[in-house]
Design goal:
single chain; mainly alpha; two-stranded antiparallel sheet; 2 strands; globular
Length: 240
């Protein structure tokens, strides 16, 4: 394991603990997207099916259990546990994640496997998880755009989620140079790049606000999320 992979995993774990800290200290879920958490949970469950069939290392197994367990717990808190359930702002979390996230990613994964003449269910779900993870943060981005001002711990949570993926890109580059038998996967590369690009504007505003010691304010800082949001609002108006 190289330093970029280790730091990426550490950033991911830190982001989860920051989110849990945010929920427990404030005792409310305003500004946290349940739909993003549900998408991440689906990502982890479909990606880590090998947890029950293949053993790689204790580190690998523990990380997979941590990701699934902690995300499932966060989803449970927001959906069923008080006071988080009643203080979750569903009206401010409007992204249609099943229609614009889960379904398109599953169809794309099916298309990829058909092109590759592969019909393995585990591989299908793994490919689906790669595509879905690349856009799972979009509902959270949309929610923060609508709020305008980002609470401090929430901004740290999103930052470390973005850092995790950016560090994984460095991990892929490192492995391609220093591991002679490393297998390139362009699906992972493309999805990872898309995921990282969604955070670029956030990183800019994050560093500006922290360097000046000011609350983080955002306004249409993700063109992709803004476009998706606009499409959904337009569709809603047409249907009314």
């Amino acid at each position: 394991m190289n330093i970029f992979r280790l730091l990426g995993d550490l950033s991911h774990v830190v982001s989860i603990f920051i989110l849990l800290l945010r929920l427990f200290t404030t005792r409310q879920a305003a500004g946290i997207s349940l739909k993003t958490q549900e998408m991440f949970l689906l990502v982890f469950v479909t990606r880590y099916l090998d947890l029950f069939t293949t053993y790689y290392s204790i580190y690998n197994s523990l990380m997979k259990i941590l990701y699934i367990g902690s995300t499932a717990y966060i989803v449970h808190m927001l959906r069923f546990q008080e006071p988080f359930k009643s203080k979750y702002d569903s009206a401010n979390d409007p992204f249609l994640h099943l229609k614009f996230g889960v379904l398109p990613c599953f169809c794309l994964a099916c298309l990829v496997l058909l092109v590759q003449y592969s019909f393995d269910v585990v591989e299908l779900l793994w490919t689906f998880s790669i595509f879905l993870e690349s856009i799972a943060i979009v509902p959270q981005i949309v929610m923060l755009q609508r709020d305008g001002e980002v609470e401090n711990l929430t901004s740290h949570y999103v930052f470390f989620m973005g850092a995790y993926r950016a560090l994984y890109i460095l991990n892929w580059i490192y492995r391609s140079y220093f591991e002679p038998y490393y297998r390139h996967n362009w699906i992972v590369y493309i999805a990872g790049t898309v995921q990282t690009l969604l955070y670029v504007d956030f990183f800019y505003y994050y560093f500006i606000s922290k360097s000046k010691g000011l609350p983080m304010k955002v306004q249409n800082w993700s063109p992709v999320a803004s476009g998706w949001m606009g499409a959904q609002l337009k569709e809603k108006r047409v249907g009314e």
